[in-house]
Write a structure and sequence with these properties.
By secondary structure, the chain is α/β, with parallel strands linked by helices. It has three domains: 5-100, Nucleotidyltransferase, domain 5 (2-Layer Sandwich), CATH 3.30.420; 113-204; 209-330, no CATH class. The protein contains 13 helices and seven strands. Helix 5 (113-144) crosses helix 9 (222-232) and helix 11 packs across helix 13. The longest helix has 32 residues, at 113-144. The protein is 55% helix and 13% strand.
């Protein structure tokens, strides 16, 4: 029997499969174990399969696509309003199917194994950078308690600690010198791990043309380009650049009722890391705009005269997101006008 849509509520061990026919009547809504899931999906004719974009969804998406189905992943926040009654697997599966039928429903593309590799390395790197920052702050703070002040900056901290440990005049006890040395070794270990991951990312993407094209965009470096590659994949999945910017949470929120409408700050939806990297890249471009006279920097100079610098940075990040879409969709490097 041909179904119009099949929705799956994913879990660790038990999966709920809900099948709807052409008039959206529920044909079946049953639980299956992990081992039974793919066998159960083989019993259906190839059709549209909807799952929440969550833990393990990309893995199951690839497996189910291999069976001939068309898989779409829907964000969890779009499903929540459609849960009727108590929250359980049965009702969640129905809500996933109903949410996918909405005219404004948006979907997440299933990641390829290459994208999964890139994203995994990028997330490990992000965790290590956070741990390195925490170690540096603790090291700096503990030395300050003994009256040893180090200049601001991670590089200054790296170069100062060995000299401090060798200086017998510094007011550090033997115990303090011991934990300072251990924290310093921990800091350098984080540095080595981060560099190794960055080298692996560059090696993995060395022959990727989209990766090279992205780095022609102002404010987009190797790490930002790798993160974009992992998160976006096929840019044609988005209708246009504005839709991609909205997906990244870089477009304004709108609040309206009747004839009143108010535009507020950016929505901050989507990938927080991706948005952060674009904003940092935009800030770098803004810092150098006075020394350049291309079309993008002339636009920035005009904005700076009438807007707060923070607003200019976000506006530029929004534009960079649209440029990213154009570069990936049209397969052409960014050209300075």
């Amino acid at each position: 029997m041909k179904h119009s849509v099949i929705s799956i509520d994913l879990a660790k061990t038990v999966f709920q499969i809900c099948a709807l026919n052409a008039d959206n009547t529920i044909v079946s809504n049953k639980k299956h174990s992990r081992k039974q899931l793919l066998h159960a999906m083989r019993q259906f004719e190839p059709t549209e399969v909807i799952m929440e974009a969550c833990y393990s969804s990309h893995h199951w998406g690839r497996e189910i696509q291999a069976l001939g189905h068309t898989v779409k992943l829907i964000p969890a926040y779009q499903v929540k309003p459609f849960v009727v009654g108590n929250k359980n697997d049965h009702n969640d599966a129905i809500a996933i199917a109903e949410a996918s039928r909405r005219p404004k429903a948006s979907f997440v593309a299933v990641k390829t194994l290459e994208q999964q590799d890139i994203q995994s390395l990028q997330r490990i790197r992000e965790r290590l950078v956070k741990q390195r920052t925490a170690t540096a702050h603790q090291l700096r703070g503990l030395m300050a308690e003994y009256g040893v002040i180090v200049p601001v900056g991670l590089n200054k901290l790296r170069s100062s600690v060995p000299d401090i440990l060798e200086d017998a005049q510094q007011p550090l006890t033997m115990t303090a010198r011991g934990f300072v040395h251990r924290l310093y070794r921990e800091l350098t270990a984080h540095d080595q791990h981060v560099k190794a991951l960055e080298a692996e990312l560059k090696s993995l993407l060395a022959n990727n043309e989209d990766y090279q094209r992205l780095q022609t965009i102002p404010g987009i470096g190797p790490i930002s380009a790798a993160t974009l590659m992992a998160s976006i994949g096929d840019a044609k999945f988005f209708k246009n650049g504005r839709q991609m910017a909205a997906w990244m949470g870089l477009t304004p929120k709108q609040r309206g009722s009747g004839e009143k409408s108010r535009i507020t700050g950016i929505s901050k939806r989507g990938d927080r890391t991706l948005r952060k990297l674009l904003i940092h890249g935009a800030r770098t471009v803004l810092n150098w705009c006075e020394k350049k006279n291309d079309e993008l920097n002339l636009w920035l100079k005009t904005l700076k005269k009438r807007m707060h610098p923070c607003k200019v940075v976000v506006a530029l990040a929004n534009k960079l997101a649209r440029i990213v879409w154009a570069v990936l969709a049209k397969k052409r490097p960014y050209a300075i006008a």
